[in-house]
Amino acid sequence: MERFWTRHYPPGTPTDIDLDEFASLKQLFETSCERFADRVAFYHMDHAMTYRELERLSGSFAAWLQQHGFKRGDRLAIMLPNLLQYPVVMFGAQRAGVIVVNTNPLYTARELKHQLCDSGASGIVVLENFAATLQQVLPDTGVKHVIVTAVGDLLGFPKRPLVNFAVRRLKKMVPAWQLPAALSLRAVLAEGATLTLRAETLTHDDIAFLQYTGGTTGVAKGAMLTHGNLVANLLQARAWFGQIELTERVYVCALPLYHIFSLLANCLLFCSLGGTGVLITNPRDLPAFVKELRKRPPNFFMGVNTLFNGLMNTPGFESIDFKPLRITLGGGMAVQRAVADRWQQLTGCLITQAYGLTETSPAVCVNPLVGVAFNGSVGLPITATDVSIRDDAGQDVGINVLGEICVRGPQVMRGYWHNPEETAHVMLPDGWLRTGDLGRMDELGYVYIEDRKKDMINVSGFKVFPNEVEDVAALHPGVLEVAAVAEILEQRGESVALFVVKKNADLTAEVLIEHCRKHLTAYKLPRNVYFRDELPKTNVGKILRRALRDQLKH
Fold first, then answer.
1. Which of 88, 110, 373, 547 has the CA that lies 20 to 30 A from 240?
2. Which domains does the chain have, with CATH numbers?
3. 415-434 burial string, b = 16+ CB within 10 Å, else e?
4. Residue 475 CB neighbours (<10 A)
5. β-strand pairing of 145-149 with 386-390
6. What pLDDT was estimated at residue 220?
7. Strand bridging mode 386-390 / 403-408
8. Which of 358, 456, 466 is nearest to 412 (CA)?
9. pLDDT for the residue numbered 452
10. pLDDT tens readout for residues 6-59
């Protein structure tokens, strides 16, 4: 198909990439560590880790894996928040040819058991704060090697672990656990430092990650992301971000690195650029987050709508010097116009919306970084990517017609791990992936997301998209957070319900509905408004509409 949208790329943006630049993530990582050896790769709790140290520690971990029976293609689960341990262990596994199974530390025992069993993981690295959950399920899995780490373990390693106020506070949050055969990560790294790392030759066809997705809509499935997929998406992102020269490359890493959005856009992309990541372990502690931003103002900030909104409503944010900030990237969920406008007002930096999903490693579309105001779209298909809007029969519907967004490109996953039925459900002939997202493409090639198929509300035969209702409700100054879902009312069928966290205690349901009436046609108006102290969210801060729908059933 013709990629007509490339005619509207910013000047100098490549329309293709050289996939042969890196044979694997392993090669990319090792090349960067040699090139940027003395640069700081990560800051955490004021401790700096250089690329030289990261190369040494990840090599020790890789050598330990090889010595203890991990073969190329074996699976290692990593159950860590944003700590220095994550890049050490993740890159170490890649260097050993071991597939990483990224695991949400907040998983329940049921969710953890499913992922460990489904992936066939033979080992796991887990923060001690979550070891009690692992203890509940370990006997029912095939995991043979358990490695436990504490928050401060790598703060100055190999010296004694650093213990400061933040570390002590997190240590107090550790539930009691017993895993008699578990090893400490510090001991593993010490032993690995005495071993020889055997070089593995990896190719684009080797699987790098099993990235689980779909857990909020059913049984989680492991997307098989190859070294080729991740290398391609990294090169695509690098081609796009070449629009702005970042003389300093400091980025805030608040979204968890085990999530594909942060893994690619923060860790892998900036590793290739010799960037410095400021690791935020608990982004929900907004006052501490604001202090960190004041200490190290970033050049690049990636987040989601709820994170931007939460920060802007935290005292002290407005006094941060954001002059170094060049790029703010919003993804994971729709960025509301009210949030985008206020962010630009407070920071002087536009929020650039992007779009992607786990199955595409993840980037699909990004708005130009210069010369385009916030437009509500998720941007143009990025370099070397095809996007088509299709009907249920898989046929392209044309320009400005609503349909399912379908994607084709080198970043599209191989399929779901040991799940040919689900793979066949989303993969069309000729490599097209059905995303499950409803949207349209305009005559310039900009893609607009209307909503997820499953979240659409059907009011008397009329389609109502939650994003639109939420965007209108968020314009009210008394609204902090909002989500719109379908509520089934007797004799009426589906109607729109709003769940709201107040910014202003005086806000009432009647006032908010009247506000919406000024901007929405009658069938889109919320029938009921439910106020909550907080809304359920995923690990990256995306509001869980399904959990809210479930509340209405009880």
1. 88
2. 4-16+225-452 (3.40.50.12780), 49-202 (3.40.50.980), 456-552 (3.30.300.30)
3. bbbebeebbeebbeeeebbb
4. 16
5. unpaired
6. 84
7. antiparallel
8. 358
9. 77
10. 999 999 999 999 999 999 999 999 999 999 999 999 999 999 999 999 999 999
Look up residue 56 and give its amino acid: R
Question: Cα torsion for 151, 156, 160, 166, to the nearest 10°?
Answer: -40
- Amino acid identity of 257? L
pLDDT digits (tens, 9 = 90+) for 253-285: 999 999 999 999 999 999 999 999 999 999 999
One-letter amino acid at 503 equals: K
> How far are the Cα atoms of 14, 113, 513 from residue 447, in angstroms, in the given order?
19, 38, 30
C-beta of residue 204 within 8 angstroms of C-beta of residue 22: no
In 3D space, the residue among 343, 337, 341 whose CA is nearest the CA of residue 308 turns out to be 343
Instruction: State the pairing for strand pair 183-184/145-149.
Output: parallel
Handedness of CA 133, 155, 322, 377 (dihedral sign): negative
Q: What is the largest CA-CA distance in the chain?
A: 72
CA distance 286 to 277: 18
Name 319's Cβ contacts closer than 8 Å, sequence gap at least 6: 294
**In the prediction, which pLDDT does 66 show?**
98
**Cβ distance 104 to 260 under 8 Å?**
no
Question: Which two three-digit tokens encode residue 270?
Answer: 């900036």
Pair 250, 324: CB distance under 8 Å: yes
Structure tokens at 109: 């025992």
User: pLDDT band at 162, cuts 50/70/90?
Assistant: low
Identify the DSSP state of 264: I
